[in-house]
């Protein structure tokens, strides 16, 4: 069993690209190990592999191509679990707080001036690592966040990223797909039965409405679920699922670029909010709030058991399956530091102090396993 992680470790020591990941609530951990150190991009999203995309949708998406890689998997590996030690969790400095609150105030003012309705503003926090071994950090993420998409991604020319994200960007199987609209945050206090303020309800509704509108050119039979409260680590969010069928004329690229970056990570209208983020956030988000996941992999589904035609039952159906996640609750390891990325949705009724506290609460998702 340890061989699995040893292989990944060796691959990393050889400075070869890889991704190792586990999907939400699954027991299988998968690794895709690229055989060369080539930096490969995708723009059409037609290949099979694992894609890693930045926030800025004008920048290139990186691909680990299935054809150039070895795939391994293991079920229920033994994991390191650690108890969070709040003493060890460094606090962000007063200057960082001031800087973030200033940015949030600027965002609120821009909304009041009518530049946009919502903007997601973020920051980066550096933590010095005691143990900088990415595989053991990855194992701790696996142990702690069963309902997240947990990953460790590496390319020698790009860097090493780890995360445990609660948010799916899009899942497509054949021509059916679903999209998650996740936004609004409060700290989990032992119950899912909570009251949401108008600010959070509105900020999440913006995301749902945007997704539905953006999908209209490429989708039909669009269905919207009820909005529910979901737990993600120490936090609660509001979630709505949108499902639909791809029009015969549409393709995956159209769907991805219609929705990414969604107002859950960018804002509304998309262009104005994105321009504001690129201009006013004083750092580069790079892959934070981008997306990542399996691209066009073969998924084998058994035919429906109710079918009359016996012959049909004998054959499983192979469909192309894509499962992309939004890169949230993530960090980049650089030398002996972890750069943790956190942000929150700002609307007209945001309170800068509360928005700061929200980023502090979100930073604990990563800090508590370091
Ligand atoms: C931008 C982040 O979260 C997004 C996802 C869920 C809730 C969010 C919020 O309440 O602001 C954000 O839209 C982040 O965690 O860095």
TrEMBL record:
It comes from the Bacteria. It holds the Pfam family Chorismate_bind. SUPFAM superfamilies: ADC synthase. This is Isochorismate synthase. It comes from Seonamhaeicola marinus. InterPro entries: ADC_synthase, Chorismate_C. Residues 97-297, 320-362 form the Chorismate-utilising enzyme C-terminal domain.
